[in-house]
Amino acid sequence: MAETSKATSNADVATLSFERAIEELETIVKRLEDGKVPLEESVAIYERGESLKRRCEELLRLAEARVDKITTDASGRAVGTEPLDVR
C-alpha cells in the first residue's frame, strides 16, 4: 500500500463511528481467519485492522472519560454532568 494511500486510509478511519469501526474490524478478522486472502492483501487488511483497533480504543477512552464526568450527590445518584475537557 503506498504511503499516500495509507494516509488516506488512516484519515478515513479517524472519522468512523465506534460501531462502524468495530463492524469493519470484525469483517477483517473473519477474512484473515478464513485464510483465503492472498498474502499481500492480508498484510494490507491487517494494517487497516490495527488502525481500526486504535480508533475503537480511542473512542472507548473518550466515552469512559465522559462517564467519569457524571456528577453524583451524596447518595450516589447522578445529578448532572461536568464539561469534558478533551484537549
Protein architecture, described:
With 87 residues, this protein is mainly α. It has one domain. It has 3 helices and 2 strands; from the N terminus they run αααββ. Strands 1-2 form a two-stranded antiparallel sheet. A hairpin with a 5-residue loop joins β1 and β2. α1 runs parallel beside α3. The two termini are 32 Å apart. The model has no long low-confidence stretch (mean pLDDT 83).
pLDDT under 50 segments (min length 5)?
A: none
Gyration radius, rounded: 18 Å
Strand order of the largest sheet: 1-2
How many domains make up the 3D coordinates? 1
Percentage of residues in helical conformation: 55-70%
How is the biggest beta sheet arranged? 2 strands, antiparallel
Shape: elongated
Give helix and strand order, one letter per element, not per position: HHHEE
Count of DSSP strands: 2
Number of helices: 3
Which structural category do the helix and sheet elements fall into?
mainly alpha
Mean pLDDT: 83
Separation of termini? 32 Å
The oligomeric state of the chains shown is single chain
**β-strand amount:** 5-15%
Describe the SSE topology.
Elements: H1 3-14, H2 18-34, H3 39-68, E1 70-72, E2 78-81
Antiparallel strand pairs: 1-2
Helix pairs in contact: 1-3, 2-3
Primary descriptors:
two-stranded antiparallel sheet, 2 strands, 87 residues, 8% strand, mainly alpha
Short recap of the structure:
With 87 residues, the chain is mostly helical. The protein is built from 3 helices and 2 strands.
